[in-house]
Amino acid sequence: MNELLSIFIGGENRIVLPFLLYPVILVIPSILLAGLVVIPHDKFPSAIKQILSIPLLLAVFMTPFGFTNGNRIIDLVAGVANYNLFLRFFELCWVGPLVQHRPVYATPESLWIDFWGCLRTFPKPAKEDTKDLKKGEVKQYTKDKKYYHILINLAIHLIEVDIICSWMTTFTSNEFCATWFERPKLFFAIYFFANLVLNGAFNSVGFSLHLFYCLVFEGGSYSSEQWRTLMIHPVMSGTLDDLWSHRWHQLFKSTWLAFPFRPVRILTMRLLNKRVKNAKSIGFIVASIAVFAASAGMHEYVIAANMGLPIYSRVFMGEQCIFFLGHGLGVFFEHVVELVVAPKLSKEFKDSFACYLIKRIWTMAFGYYTFYYIFNGFMAWGFQFDSPLTFSQPAIIKLVQTFPVLRDFVGTNILI
């Protein structure tokens, strides 16, 4: 029994599975849950579905703690995927029925849209007459691009990831984590380029999914109006709200809207409706903070599964919460300033370069001073060293050999 429990504390105790078997073990519980929830509730009672969902939900949640592929990038993807699959099916099977009194049921179409909605717009019948559509009509999108347009964008972002990863992997994990304390200027450069590499990495995923959908389901052509970029240069954010609402990836938006956002907003409003006048606004704020908490939970979960619970609880526990809840409070502060301070400022100042500069400095500084808390656990784990894209590293080594002054800007993880 103790040996079995030791497996499910994560880290080095996990069972290493072959490359092809690993994804099968990961997805089987989720496929079974999907099959369960799409059965019409009049043919299969919700109570029975809920009972059957319990071991499957536990399997989805615990699998990254018990099994590994041995590749840290794949383990990262597996942890993130299973965390969000757990949240989505937990909402469908338990939270939605308890909070909104609905049956345990979802259509295959709704699950399909949940998965692709972060990238693709699925048109719905118009609720009322508009300039372009009459009530009940569905917008028709014109296909104006081919699959090779996706390939060009994908190649650009893969090159971006390769160059930055090749530089970042010259640092050891200890060197990375020490820069926060010992070399703040270098840490700022790491913070800046980490934003660029995340932009490239997520957009590479987005364009890969887009290419797959275009080739398999759309015959090789698509409407550019119907598809969106997953990330929009987060380093260019003018405010924290702009960063998280617009520029950061919306990969899990449908999941986090379903849970925790909607249930938390509903429960908060029910609690406050008869007690305060602005229950709706408070409900929105609390629900928004809950989304940041869900994101913090996802990052804590990945670190815990891959570092192991003993190391995680002793060294890294709570760091992701500091980062994400801190950013949630930062966004809340911006809204307070927008409501209380902004109306008292002149339009000339709000449109001025000075105002723009203040916003940019605030956003960049807040990101810089909180970045360590999201950065530390992942760098200590060393997932970056399993990146498949480091083809540029020989060129970086040669550049440093040619210009020795650049030695201070690379780590000791390469022999120069």
UniProtKB/TrEMBL annotation:
InterPro entries: Wax_synthase, Wax_synthase_dom. Residues 227-306 form the Wax synthase domain. GO terms for biological process: lipid metabolic process. It is found in: Membrane. One of its GO terms (cellular component) is membrane. The keyword Membrane applies. The keyword Ribonucleoprotein does not apply. The chain crosses the membrane at residues 20-39, 51-67, 147-169, 189-216, 282-302, 322-341, 361-383. Keywords: Membrane, Transferase, Transmembrane, Transmembrane helix. Pathway: Secondary metabolite biosynthesis. It is a multi-pass membrane protein. One of its GO terms (molecular function) is O-acyltransferase activity. It holds the Pfam family MBOAT_2. Belongs to the wax synthase family. This is Wax synthase domain-containing protein. It comes from Mucor saturninus.
